[in-house]
Amino acid sequence: MNKFRLSMISAAVSVVVACSAAAQQKTIEDGVYTTEQAEAGQPLFEQRCSACHNADFYRGTLSNRNNQPLAYLFEEILVTMPADMPGSLMDAEYEAILAHILQLTGYPAGDAPLDYASGTMHTVNIVPPKD
Ligand code: HEC
User: Fold this and answer.
1) Closest ligand 1 atom to the C-alpha of 64?
2) Residues lining ligand 1, Cβ inside 6 A
3) Selecting from 1.10.760, 1.10.10, 3.30.450, 2.60.40, what CATH number does the domain 26-125 have?
4) I need a labelling partner for 104 at 20 to 30 A (CA). Which of 1, 4, 47, 86 fits?
5) What percent of the chain has pLDDT over 90?
């Protein structure tokens, strides 16, 4: 096999890999946080968020953001919330709070925690809550 054919094959392989990566887009129904993470987020959520929003508010937010990457919602929260002290928490604390919000609104937990720095939140889309 000559070098040209080899590189054609490897180009074809990378197209297939890229396509299957796109097909692997997850949603928040696929278990994108862990139970431990959601539990860690609960006290923070209660101290820093629940004075202004209840679970219904988050259900509305998730419905409005149908099909958007979860990273967009995370970034919005990171930059604007809590409204009385935006950006005052650590990234890991915002991740735990978002995990708690997903648990509270009825989405299942999974094996891996939410991790903004890894970029995976960009590959997870929001779908509306079931009820
Ligand atoms: C002092 C009151 C207050 C606190 C505390 C607060 N928020 Fe908010 N939040 C607001 C207001 C005001 C808005 C914008 C108006 C609205 O949509 O109700 C908002 C909007 C939001 C939205 C909608 C964003 C969007 O664009 O869809 C989310 C999600 C949210 N807050 C999450 C949080 C989280 C998570 C916390 C805790 C870290 C928090 N909020 C703490 C007042 C607050």
Assistant:
1) 27
2) 48-49, 51-53, 61, 76-77, 81-84, 97
3) 1.10.760
4) 86
5) 79
